[in-house]
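Session log. Operator J.P. requested a structure for one protein chain; no other inputs attached. Running the standard single-chain path with token output.
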Amino acid sequence: MQIQLSMTGYHPVTIGENVQGDQLTDKEIRAVLVDFLKGRPVAPKAVLEEVRVHNGNAIADVVSIHNMAHCYEIKGETDAISRITRQGAFYDQAFQRITLVTTKNHERQAFQLAPTHWGVVVASKASDGTLMLRYMRKATDSPRFNKEVALLTLWKCELLALCGVEEKAAQKLSRANLTKMIATKTGVREVNISIAQSLLGRQTQTGWPATI
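Structure written below.
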């Protein structure tokens, strides 16, 4: 694999891996993206796949775990990029950072459809079959981030664990009411850290597909 990791000024960053086939698929892009994330100067604690958010209304393709969870939505050459308008409404509330990873044929639509705070990465294939990922725009904080919606990413047992001394009294509450209670008492930064730690703990305990 060829990797260039300089992020100075957030100029395009290119990494490459040989792939087969005429069209770039989600699977091919995902494999290279995961390798890229693992190779970052500050590597994530874990890279998770297929993370359900907003009570299952959307599924994040790849999520990197740092002090917060960063969502990566992948759209291959034959995927309908227009779907991000619906999916994005859920991602924007559930994650503070979101990046769209798509292909050259979708590049114009990517910048038209993706909110300006989303990062954009464009995948293309070189003449020798190498898949190239180019970082075109850095992700910034979502202005629509919602603590309650973000906490719905967690299972009830994980939410109860965040209640601390109140856990026993909270046993009978629904997930929706638990998220309201936690969100009321917890700041944005603390919510993000708690979600990241819970997702990491879930992977460790259950063997949930992830790359460490």
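Operator note: Residues 1-14, 206-212 have pLDDT under 50 and may be disordered.
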